[in-house]
Amino acid sequence: MRRPLQTVGWGLYLASSWTWCIGMFLPILLLRWWGWPGFLAFAVPNVLGCALFGHVLTPETSRSFVVRFRAWIAIFGAATIAYQIGFLLRTGVTAALIAALPVTLALLVGMRRGSERSDRVMMTIGAIAWIASCLLFARLGLGTLATLPATGTLPPASLAWAAPFMAFGFLLCPYLDPTFHLALQRSPSRHCFTIFGGAFTVMLLFTAAFADAGLGSGTGATLWGRPIPEWQWGLQAAFTMVAVTAAMRSLQPVCSLGGTQAVLPGMIALACLALGWQSLVESWLPPMAAGLRPSSGPVSGEATYLRWLGLYGVLFPAMVLLGLRRTPVAVIATSIAVAGLLAEWGMIGGRFPMLTAAVGVMLAAALWPRRPIDETGEMARAESR
């Protein structure tokens, strides 16, 4: 009985760790732009990409992958934490930051090495967070979910250009998420990823249910005087920060990167740089933000939110694909730069065919002749240790 309970627990943990400011806000924008087809174009590759992770890799191949990509897993974790901080500051859910940041710092300072016991504690907390979100969902009711529009403010045909871009990111980004590797290595069964698929779908439906309230156009239900979306944003974003931090401390190849004492200052430095970049983008690029179609609310802030997504639509999936292909570094850098510009033009400028072009650039780079095998000697030596 213990093994099935742990499998379920790890599945719910994954659902909570992956419910962050992408799954809790991007569907709202997609529903506004394209109606429920936009929501499905987001949800299907997101759920499938993450669920397949546990069936593509084994615990052994996961450990080898973490050794090979440990630097990018650390960067992914730092960027994800910074993204949550920026989102919570933007939405005014500061209580979650007050609660989560001390816990996150305590994990970084106090946990010299993750233990299976501490991992099980995080699994339990993740399961509790998912159950709490379900209770919030029950408090809210079906909301917008009962009347999802079939169309949005953008032409339906434009979704065909954006869908490949979303699929590319969601199919590859899970491989850099430390919580996914932790769950695969610790769970007694890979069926936890199947459980994740169902549990995470519930979280996405919850987001669709408060879509109107999330855009400020509906009152919706409240809890203790605060709107339900704020509770969900604060709860899940705070858990994501703590879970990502704990997972990075548990994955020894990641936490030992550059020495254990370098993890804390490195994480803080990357987070501060990312948040500083967000502030500068919002003040320096208002003309580009004004090209967002259609606009609503603080356009510059919304555009900055979408620019953050460029990390998960271009940079991180490209590093997974091109890193596995052993593409030459110059080709990787060039393709990411070109794809990033195309993504900016496509998502922020409302010229969605450029999003498909960005994916084409990265796929074309993957066809480039591989680096000689001896250039990966360092990776091989690291795996043999």
How would you summarize this macromolecular structure in one to three sentences?
The protein has 385 residues and is mainly alpha-helical.
Report how far the terminal alpha carbons are from each other: 36 Å
- Summarize the helix and strand pattern as letters: HHHHHHHHHHHEEHHHHHHHH
Note the main sheet. 2 strands, antiparallel
- Counted by DSSP, the helix tally is 19
Relative helix content: over 70%
Number of separate domains: 1
Shape: globular
| pLDDT < 50 runs, ≥5 residues | 287-300, 375-385
The fraction of residues in strands falls at under 5%
Strand order of the largest sheet: 1-2
Alpha-beta classification = mainly alpha
Q: How much is the average pLDDT?
A: 82
Please give the radius of gyration in angstroms.
20 Å
Number of strands: 2
Describe what you observe in this structure:
With 385 residues, the chain is an all-alpha fold. The chain has one domain (2-283). It is 74% helix and 1% strand. The protein has helices at residues 2-17, 26-34, 36-56, 59-68, 70-91, 94-110, 116-140, 159-172, 178-186, 192-209, 211-214, 228-250, 252-255, 263-284, 286-289, 299-324, 329-348, 353-366, 377-384, and strands at 222-223, 226-227. It has a two-stranded antiparallel sheet with strand order 1-2. A hairpin with a 2-residue loop joins strand 1 and strand 2. Helix 4 (59-68) packs antiparallel against helix 9 (178-186) and helix 8 (159-172) crosses helix 18. The longest helix has 26 residues, at 299-324.
